[in-house]
Design a protein that fits this description.
With 356 residues, this protein is mainly α. The chain has helices spanning 4-45, 56-77, 88-108, 114-120, 125-136, 142-160, 178-206, 210-232, 235-244, 246-273, 275-297, 303-329, 331-335, 342-352.
């Protein structure tokens, strides 16, 4: 039986262990997504020798194949049913939108900078709120509108006050109009939102587990990617590029592994600490990834663009702070209400953020 002093210290040890896990999850997400983003930019914008790699769909195929293998291992380790928990046609819808979104994300880097790609994900706040009012009759607070306006203004400041084109535009015979990159980012945002909605619908209608959905979504995504790769006529050239550039093969392997590892950390964080902690972590991730990109690849940035970045992330962090304050004040009320199981909550939150 534990001694009285030991029993008194237990709460402290539990809080300390919780803090350590929280920091561990956050660092895991930031580090692996930093690696993932850096390699995205390296592969899609920098030459290997005197050649540049062109096939976005090949990278998507590699990512999904590695994710499918890891999901199968997770399903077996957790002794979950290997059979599909939802109709395959519904998994196929998720897979198709997910593959198309990923292709648009990679392709955009041929025309716009990595920083623009990252900031494009912030730009959707205002349109989402307007659609929410028009379709669902939602109401938003003055703080929500102020944050959305600040983020939108910051993104616009960044886009119009300095260079936003891809490094690839500096290479002979490469690159293209920046506007094409903006259109690809718009397509990515629409398809990514559709993917998240379809994933959440799967959880609600069929209560599939996270890893079961990851397994079948990534298996079908691999099949779709393979068909698209063959149909594009890029299969042979992509394999030849892989065989003749060992550094590209290494980058592709690490890219795929870091994508899967980040998903595992995200799932653990959302399950144990909730969506708010994840949102704050992703804000830090965006800041660190953009800064690292400018330092690592030597991009030029104007003072006006720096002001835009400060405005964007100040607004986002303020939003997280106010949300945390509201969450803390309502905690007592929430713990007295019936809640869904932690596993279900984590799966639905992860689906909402498009993590499969």
């Amino acid at each position: 039986m534990p001694s009285a002093p030991s029993a008194m210290l237990n709460p402290h040890f539990k809080d300390l262990a919780l803090l350590r896990r929280g920091v561990f999850y956050a660092l895991g997400i930031i580090v692996f997504l930093l690696i993932y983003g850096t390699l995205q930019e390296r592969i899609m914008t920098r030459p290997y020798g005197d050649q540049v790699f062109n096939s976005s769909i090949f990278l998507v195929l590699c990512n999904r194949a590695v994710a499918a293998i890891c999901a199968l291992c997770a399903v077996c380790w957790r002794r979950e049913p290997v059979t599909n928990g939802a109709p395959c046609w519904q998994y196929a819808l998720v897979s198709f939108s997910n593959v198309c979104a990923s292709v648009c994300q990679y392709e955009a880097l041929k025309y716009v900078s990595f920083a623009v790609q990252m900031l494009g994900k912030c730009f959707k706040m205002m349109p989402v709120m307007l659609w929410g009012m028009a379709i669902d009759g939602k109401r938003y607070s003055l703080t929500d509108w102020a944050v959305a306006a600040a983020v939108t203004a910051g993104v616009m400041q960044f886009l119009v006050k300095g260079p936003t084109g891809s490094y690839r535009q500096n290479l002979p015979g490469e690159g293209g109009p920046t506007g094409r990159g903006y259109l690809l980012l718009l397509a990515f945002l629409l398809l990514d939102g559709l993917t998240s909605t379809l994933q959440e619908k799967l959880f609600k209608e069929h209560r599939t587990t996270k890893f079961n959905q990851m397994l079948y979504t990534n298996i079908i995504s691999s099949l779709i990617s393979s068909v698209m790769l063959i149909a594009s006529g890029q299969a042979t050239s992509s394999v030849n590029f892989l065989l003749h550039h060992s550094d590209f093969a290494t980058d592709t392997a690490v890219l795929s592994a870091s994508a899967v590892a980040s998903q595992c950390f995200i799932y653990s964080q959302v399950q144990e600490f909730g969506a708010l902690a994840f949102a704050a972590t992703m804000n830090v991730r965006q800041v660190s990834s953009i800064i690292f990109s400018y330092v690592r690849f030597g991009h030029y940035i104007t003072s006006s663009q720096i002001v835009g970045l400060v405005l964007i992330f100040s607004a986002l962090f303020y939003k997280c702070l106010t949300s945390w304050t509201v969450s803390k004040s309502e905690k007592q009320r929430l713990v007295q209400e019936p809640k869904e199981a932690p596993e279900d909550s984590a799966e639905r939150n992860s689906a909402r953020y498009g993590l499969a």
